Amino acid sequence: xxxxxxxxxxxxxxxxxxxxxxxxxxxxxxxxxxxxxxxxxxxxxxxxxxxxxxxxxxxxxxxxxxxxxxxxxxxxxxxxxxxxxxxxxxxxxxxxxxxxxxxxxxxxxxxxxxxxxxxxxxxxxxxxxxxxxxxxxxxxxxxxxxxxxxxxxxxxxxxxxxxxxxxxxxxxxxxxxxxxxxxxxxx
Length: 187
Known about the structure:
Structural class: alpha/beta
CATH superfamily: Formyl transferase, N-terminal domain
Largest sheet: 7 strands, mixed
Number of helices: 6
CATH topology: Rossmann fold
Oligomer: single chain
Strand order of the largest sheet: 3-2-1-4-5-6-7
CATH architecture: 3-Layer(aba) Sandwich
Distance between the termini: 13 Å
Strand content: 15-25%
CATH class: Alpha Beta
Number of strands: 7
């Protein structure tokens, strides 16, 4: 049986990328990191794991469609069949969504549909909710609106700081995301 090839898209530190790469029994091969932020520390992590990096500045393209067309060409050329978003701070457009229909997943630091978009942890912390969590979901044309694959709750403790809550959420993300990836690759 051939190995499933995947790409990870990330824009920042790459802690979820690292968690995926550290999963010893990962049922796919990460063959590419796509990064849209010059100087993001995820690039160093990819180099450490020997994963080729595609760094792009989407603003240097005439349109999102042009940018995504080049991404699709590179992804197809690398044999990629799945995309895992791990802190990728762009909304996927129709070009990417059509080329990888039902094959793009994301991890989000809240129990969607609560607190979609940016700063979900900060939104949960300041709202006063007693529970937040982590969601892994398929990507669609909306912002964190795709079908949910898995969720796990994280209590917001009375003694929490936003940083303490973030740490506990990331601990769940780093365990849950690779597990969900393996479940999907087992299908």
